[in-house]
């Protein structure tokens, strides 16, 4: 019933918003690197928790969306473009908003194709407690930052030393962040899927355990017994800061904390065997747990 109500509210808004050029307010990191990931964030102050609220999101890359630190669907990622079709998704975000300061945060990862200055388009709309409509959109008041040495494209690299855990929080002070550049143009080479109230995609299905591990000339191999779509997740303990772990083309740079986890954040694979190599003082004994995260699309 809640889904049907959300769908009706969303469709009514879409039908009434053509004059506002709905979904065309693009922002991008200044001078975007087509492989560098980007964090976007914006705080909105609401006098009361809204009666109903939605977020409509389009992106030319993969992304994760957080509101007040919470993943709004539980999905591990969303693909902005599928089969050369720009995906425009609508999320019911009512239960994530509150009276006061609300932080909207998006983790953007390029898909390896030029974004042409259009990385993220996001609109928040709905009705307050008095049924008065409200509307916000991505613009020059947002803030953005490229997490250092975190890249995504055909392969992926994540430097855990530069990861800021609290960048999505209300308390975080985004010193040194940049204002994005904006665009009102739509890439006409891409067709756009119609707006839909989105439930979830790319959610965790099963957690698998390897059936065996072995060494050969390629490296340390982890065999899960069957192919699965998703990512390996490796728990590392007492590694030295800056040591590099390579996993099927993914490079993870250790932060040196007591426990840390290496896994693909955006470039999921369909694999049975993962091959690990490493450098420096890293040892196999630093690996304390190995899991396969099978994703249900």
UniProtKB/TrEMBL annotation:
Cleavable signal peptide: 1-19
InterPro entries xref list: Alpha_rhamnosid, Bac_rhamnosid_N, Galactose-bd-like_sf
Alphabetized Gene3D superfamilies for the sequence: Galactose-binding domain-like
Domain Bacterial alpha-L-rhamnosidase N-terminal: 50-179
SUPFAM superfamilies per UniProt: Galactose-binding domain-like (SSF49785)
Keywords: Signal
PANTHER family per record: ALPHA-RHAMNOSIDASE (EUROFUNG), ALPHA-RHAMNOSIDASE (EUROFUNG)-RELATED
Protein name, UniProt field: Bacterial alpha-L-rhamnosidase N-terminal domain-containing protein
């Amino acid at each position: 019933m809640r889904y049907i109500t959300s769908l009706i509210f969303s469709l009514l808004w879409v039908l009434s918003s053509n004059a506002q050029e709905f979904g065309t307010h693009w922002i991008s990191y200044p001078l975007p690197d087509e492989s560098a990931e980007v964090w976007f964030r914006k705080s909105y102050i609401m006098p009361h928790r809204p009666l109903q609220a939605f977020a409509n999101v389009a992106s030319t890359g993969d992304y994760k969306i957080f509101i007040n630190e919470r993943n709004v669907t539980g999905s591990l990622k969303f693909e902005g473009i599928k089969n050369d079709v720009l995906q425009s998704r609508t999320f019911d975000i009512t239960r994530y908003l509150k009276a006061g300061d609300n932080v909207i945060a998006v983790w953007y990862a390029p898909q390896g194709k030029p974004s042409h200055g259009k990385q993220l388009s996001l609109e928040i709309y709905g009705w307050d407690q008095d049924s008065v409509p409200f509307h916000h959109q991505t613009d020059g008041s947002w803030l953005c930052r490229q997490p250092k040495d975190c890249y995504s494209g055909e392969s992926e690299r994540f430097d855990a030393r530069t990861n800021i855990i609290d960048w999505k929080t209300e308390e975080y002070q985004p010193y040194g962040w940049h204002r994005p550049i904006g665009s009102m143009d739509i890439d006409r080479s891409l067709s756009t899927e119609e707006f839909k109230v989105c439930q979830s995609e790319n959610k965790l299905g099963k957690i698998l355990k390897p059936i065996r591990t072995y060494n050969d000339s390629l490296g340390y191999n982890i065999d899960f017994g069957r192919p699965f779509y998703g990512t390996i997740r490796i728990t590392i303990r007492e590694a030295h800061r800056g040591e590099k772990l390579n996993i099927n083309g993914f490079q993870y740079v250790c932060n040196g904390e007591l426990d840390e986890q290496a896994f693909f954040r955006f470039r999921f694979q369909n694999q049975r065997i993962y091959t690990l190599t490493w450098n420096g003082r890293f040892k196999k004994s630093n690996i304390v747990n190995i899991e396969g995260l099978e994703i249900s699309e």
